[in-house]
Write a structure and sequence with these properties.
By secondary structure, the protein is an alpha+beta fold. It has 2 domains: 92 residues, 2-Layer Sandwich (Gyrase A, domain 2), CATH 3.30.1360.120; 78 residues, Heterotetrameric sarcosine oxidase (Alpha-Beta Plaits, 2-Layer Sandwich), CATH 3.30.70. It contains 5 helices and 11 strands. The longest helix is centred in the N-terminal third of the chain and has 11 residues. The two termini are 20 Å apart.
Length: 202
Amino acid sequence: MTGPRHQPLAHLALAAAREAPRPDAGVTLRALPYQPSIILRGESGDAAFVKAFRAGLGFDLPLAPNHVSSHDEITALWLGPSEWLILGDVGPVAPAGQGRLARALAGRHHAIISQGDGRQIIAVSGPRARDVLGKLCPLDLESPDLAPGHCARSILARCGILLHPQPGGAYHLHVARSFADYAWRVLAEAGLEFGVAIASGD
């Protein structure tokens, strides 16, 4: 896709709603801009597959459940024993020099599935970010298993999410674009008692 991408939350006029920093806001929401992503499938027990991934992207695929690894603006998030979400320009139709994952895995049993514009990432930060998410998500957000470097599939109210904790107590929520509006609105409502700020997604 070469033209400007339609952002799932553009209809909320978030650019107009962005505010100057609010020291009193307990939670800040950001709709992050489009990021290329793929689903990678392969056998984690296949040493040649794992080695080929490292040869292609220069870092190790996370093999432990709910772990995340990254290198050079590319992030791999564990979704299952044979499935990962890869964020970054690495797909088979990525720009020259960036489609190296597909080349490295050639001849190995695998599948690369482009995600296109199917996902929205919502960043939730601020001193009450955990409290807001705790109202909507059943995960134990204080667990060491949800520290930065980890991820988990769960639900936010009634929609599925992939939760990716960030340094400093922030979170990235990956949600299907068809549920982006719903997820944003329930987060904003849950944060009302703490004060909600809208930040630039840049």
